[in-house]
Amino acid sequence: MPTLRSATANSPPAATPSPAAASTPRSVKRRLTPGRAGETPGASRHTSPHRSPHAGAGTVCSPKLLSASPKSSRKRLYGDLVAAEKPKWNPRDPAQIRAVKEALHVATVPSCELVCRDHEQRRVFEFCKGCVEQEKAGSLYICGCPGTGKTLSVNKVKESLMSWADEMGMETPDSLAINCTNLSNTSEIFSKILGQFQNRKKGSNKLSPLQQLQNMFSNKESAPRRMMLVIVDEMDYLITRDRAVLHDLFMLTTFPYSRCILIGIANAIDLADRFLPKLESLNCKPLVVTFRAYSKDQISDIIKHRLKVLEYDVFEPLALEFCARKVAAATGDMRKALGVCRSAVEVLEARLQDSDQELGIVTFDHMDIALSKAFKSAVVDSILCLPQHQQMVLCALANTFQHCKKKATTLGELNKSYIGICRSTQVPAVGMLEFSNMCMVLSDQGFMKLGQSKEDKLRRVTLQIDISDIGFAFKGNRFFQKCLEQPRC
Fold this sequence. Notes:
The chain has four domains: 1-41, no CATH class; 118-291, P-loop containing nucleotide triphosphate hydrolases (Rossmann fold), CATH 3.40.50.300; 306-374, no CATH class; 379-485, Winged helix-like DNA-binding domain superfamily/Winged helix DNA-binding domain (Arc Repressor Mutant, subunit A, Orthogonal Bundle). 48% of the residues lie in helices and 8% in strands. The chain has helices at residues 4-9, 19-22, 26-31, 70-78, 94-103, 118-134, 150-167, 188-194, 209-218, 236-241, 243-251, 271-281, 296-307, 317-330, 334-354, 364-374, 378-384, 388-403, 411-425, 432-444, 467-473, 478-485, and strands at residues 138-144, 174-179, 228-233, 260-266, 287-291, 409-410, 448-450, 460-463. α15 crosses α16 (364-374). Belongs to the CDC6/cdc18 family. Pfam families: AAA_22 (PF13401), Cdc6-ORC-like_ATPase_lid (PF22606), WHD_Cdc6 (PF09079).
């Protein structure tokens, strides 16, 4: 490819402009394209050497070239148009592994805004903002299942509230965060609140911290000037241990000169129905904000949002979708989803250490193993610890109920299904008496229930555990898995 200098040097000398061209108005000259009559000698200098021969005949507006080198000119012309190739992830690099695990850690707080909780944060912020503007106390109760972003959202609202107060030129409220599980006794919460008010008057030693707060908020002279945002986390502890302390806590917001903005956070949703009627009768019913469990789309969006800080792809899209669907169907707990993703990364890391496998990303298989570890129940562990023949009995029972659409069977029918599984796996079956004894042991352990009958073969058998637990326990055993899939009605 010729350089710009050589292309200009080899071009033929420009002809002398004709009188017609010389008399052409300037506006018409601007509309003339290179190669037509009236082309000026310097026109070739503005034509890109890389211009396509099929380009239109319109005016060429090429960028100014700073170098005659073809490499630099190409970089200058097309460098912004070519997307930079994303670096590949190297799971054998300890620094990259550490960065991935840190991004997926529960304790890692996203530097930017939280996703999927905009509506809830807006409600909490507007409530706190109204209390600060009116210099009026108030209470708010936040409930939701574990891992739904309650505490993280409240902390973000607190930061936004402080920034808003600074921008408006208002006095920034004090803040106090209390975790009820760290209290030595429930009444200690009033001591912590009392210690945060700087303008309080020293009360008598005979008065309890609660009484001092009540006196402080009852008199205009002793009332503090600055607002106080009190965040009480794990409020379930107060509800179950000492409900009187909970009532006194919310009643602090009803005093005429109170400066408390109380936000209580609890995990159980039904607890609000258990203590709110009493608070309503005391005229201190809080505003309730419920955090619903995360959906699969929300879980997927949050994980992708956390991984944006990385410059490489770590997970296969199908693996992330599998994780989001499984966790959303089970609990909707975001902490559980982050733990599963970290576990999947560790599964890939372990496989790379045990083999010379080529570098790759976290796949569906890695995520499947991580999910199996996370959602393994105590029932599954108990099934895996059973002797082989007792496992076959459970497999036969699950097969009967799964394919034959029965809710109960007899010991004789179950024995026939058990013998069929023994033949399929080429394991010698036990006799009827020993089989009956095995079923009694399984009944004592709570896996099945045996009815009463004069003949053992006619005893009614029902399953006491979930069929999915049996299938999950035998998922890695190809013989049992095959027996579960083949109908034996």
